[in-house]
Amino acid sequence: MNIAIHPESPSPALTEALRAAGGALVSVPDAAAVADLEPEEGWGLVVVELGEDPTAGLTLARRVRDGSSVPVLVVAARRHLPALAAGDFDDFVLAPLDPDEVAVRVARIAVGAGGTASADEMVTFKDLTLNLATYQATVGITPIDLTFMEYELLRFFATNAGRVWSREQLLNRVWGYDYFGGARTVDVHVRRLRSKLGEERASWIATVRSVGYRFG
What we know:
Layout: E1 2-6, H1 12-20, E2 24-27, H2 31-36, E3 45-49, H3 54-67, E4 72-76, H4 81-84, E5 91-94, H5 99-112, E6 122-125, E7 128-131, E8 136-139, E9 142-143, H6 148-159, E10 164-166, H7 167-175, H8 184-197, E11 205-208, E12 212-215
Parallel strand pairs: 1-2, 1-3, 3-4, 4-5
Antiparallel strand pairs: 6-7, 7-8, 8-9, 10-12, 11-12
Helix pairs in contact: 1-5, 6-7, 6-8
């Protein structure tokens, strides 16, 4: 995802969090540069970090919103909260930044920009976001290519985090009571999910010896 970021010298913590989430960052000095520097595939998001002059940053956010449909995320300190009340943006996050929170908020804004899902159609776990309306899954702001049953299994796990489920229970709850496949089906799908979630997040699906699996 292409992300326009203001100011031109954002904090290292914000830059690191956005890059860790898979964003391709382009610094913009003002609202005009957002249009002038827009890549062919367009902006996925504009991030505005408020500094000593929050009015300037919020003005840029308003101009972006007035001139385009690109969602805007504001990064603020607690001292900026009074100014945020009159701001025009899609969401905000407070410093000090939690990279997981940044990734989840970016993903939710990016998915919600198309107007395809309401809040109750979104499932989140750390930086994982599942859009129940479109069957899209993202880690940070990176889409995950899942089959239908992989998505259904991950959705079940994410909405039932912390509990241990046997393979037979998972077959019944996810595949359905009329499914005649063996327990190995669950193991295959878990292995694929771990691979697609990536090395850092594969441990979310823990094997409970002689029982089954636990998510979270």
